[in-house]
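Thread: "does anyone have the structure for this chain?"

Original post by V.I.:
We have the sequence but no experimental structure in hand. Need at least a predicted one for the grant figures.
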Amino acid sequence: MNADSPLGHHHLTRPLDYRSIMSGHRRGISAGLMRAGLALAAVPYRLVVAQRNRGFDRGQGVERCAATVISVGNLTTGGTGKTPIVADLARRFRRHDIRVAIVSRGYGRGDADQNDEAAELHQRLPDVPHVQNPDRVEAARIAVEELESQLILMDDGFQHRRLHRDLDIVLVDMTCPFGYGHLLPRGLLREPIKSLRRAQVAILTRCDQVDEPAIDDVIATIRSANPAIVILRSSHRPSGLLQFPDQQTAVEDLRGQRVGLISGIGNPAAFRRTAEDVGAIVVAEKILPDHAHYDRETVERLRQWATDLGDARQLICTQKDLVKLQTDRIATLPLSALTIDAEIEPSTEFDAMLQQIATAIHTTE
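Reply from O.Q.:
Generated one for you, tokens below.
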């Protein structure tokens, strides 16, 4: 088996090696030339982004829907921990008896009815419908006219500006806050940091995985782009172990256990740190591309990999992976998902924003 393939035995697969080039960790003439080429490719990307944003800033092409819209997005590609935050917001408004729907592009869905993120959100929020459509305006129309939704949470919506939003929330992943400081493809930024001036709220995710000076630096950078923005800290807390289909056990059961990790997400390093933080001993790791498809060949290769793990006692994956694998074991090893919930710091200012939205919705009923 090729060690550089997504199912190879090395911890650093191709997506991570690409990050090592963008971050500058990989040295040498070839790496430097690749960074130079990527920097040149970022120039036209920057021009296109700037032109597009100028049009939206003037209100060109922006459409409203007959519901309140909250966008939850980010500046960078890759996993910033949106799913637990979206689930937390949905639960807050459901407690106000507000009919909530989630709309998203449905990236990685293929021929399936929903992608992995939608399947995970359905598992977390069975009473909240999820409409997936590359046309967010059409998705919002369906949510309002067919589902009678009062509030729309637009997942990954910061760059999808055609749908008017009443509140813009941007997530900043503290393990890689600004995409190595460069626009795609030189870095992971979808648009410049100054675009934060459009947002009203910034939520720093995975604050528990970095130190205070790093958080202070990120806050200072955000403030330089938008002095008025409300900044909240949050942590992604392990809440339990989920075995397919619905058996829940305590996360403490992982302490001291020798495990193999499986992840097909945007930030596998953060998932590994979370598993280690709860006391798991990671003896092997299988990193797949984000939104990986678990087809027959992939699952068979996973079985072979699991069969060779003589010193692991169980396999741990993400909840997003479990909804696609839909099994409680691979080979002879039991498989569980480490479930993660968002813990957002208390904020009277943020609570007041959400309360104002809830009150306005009820007033217009």
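V.I.: this helps a lot. The chain has two domains: 68-237+343-363, 238-341.
O.Q.: and The first strand starts at residue 68 and ends at 74.
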